[in-house]
Design a protein that fits this description.
binds erythose-4-phosphate, 214 residues, 8-stranded parallel beta barrel, 11 helices, alpha/beta
């Protein structure tokens, strides 16, 4: 399963990229707004740090506007994946953009039938928002399992990108469910490396090693 970081922070991206196990980046308008920078410049800088897919989201409401903005975003760098929201006008834009060879990440997916529509429209990625479903007392991970079954039933190549990840157990469950990608905040990425028994074990090994006289 690929690891993407869900952030617009260059510091977080540089730190995660240095581990060598970061595969890509997702951003959204809220994350980009937090950085207070020119959108295009930020996406370009991210693309120079991470050699993998970088999702940049359209902010237009009409199909025509999303297609125009999506084409502009796709020209920033070959790594750019255009992120389009999952409503009817968005799906119409996905069809046009994918038809022109633009990679598209369909975002704000909350049902398996929405995911089926996105795949039919030619989406490269579908982003089901797991944490936001958990927030309203639905089991978000059930959605990943349902989409995996449907995509496998029909051989869709659209990659499942588990989004709105809030903790390491979401990453574990996404991997068990056969998600292609999990995108996560930096603090979740960092937590994946840690286990108290690893730290204790390493301290003991090093302490014992120091006792060696020869
Ligand atoms: C995914 O692409 C979204 O940017 C993100 O995962 C949303 O997460 P949130 O529900 O924590 O805002």
């Amino acid at each position: 399963m690929k690891f993407f970081l869900d952030t617009g922070s260059i510091d977080e991206i540089r730190t995660a990229a240095a581990t060598g196990v970061l595969d890509g980046i997702t951003t959204n308008p809220s994350l980009v707004a937090k950085e207070g920078r020119n959108f295009r410049d930020l996406i370009l800088e991210i693309c120079t740090i991470v050699d993998g897919p970088v999702s940049a989201e359209v902010t237009e409401a009409s199909t025509e506007g999303m297609v125009r903005q999506g084409l502009e975003l796709s020209k920033i760098h070959t790594n750019v994946v255009v992120k389009v929201p999952l409503f009817k006008e968005g799906i119409m834009a996905v069809r046009q953009l994918s038809g022109q060879g633009v990679k598209v990440n369909v975002t704000l997916c909350f049902s398996a039938t929405q995911a089926l529509i996105a795949a039919k429209a030619g989406a490269t990625y579908i982003s089901p928002f797991i944490g936001r479903l958990d927030d309203i007392s639905q089991v978000g991970m059930d959605l990943i399992r349902d989409i995996r079954t449907i995509y496998d039933n029909y051989g869709f190549a659209t990659q499942i990108l588990t989004a709105s990840v809030r903790h390491p157990v979401h990453v574990l469950e996404a991997a068990l469910a056969g998600s292609d990608v999990a995108t996560m905040p930096y603090k979740v990425f960092d937590a994946l490396f840690k286990h108290p028994l690893t730290d204790l074990g390493n301290e003991k090994f090093l302490a014992d090693w120091k006792k060696l006289k020869t």
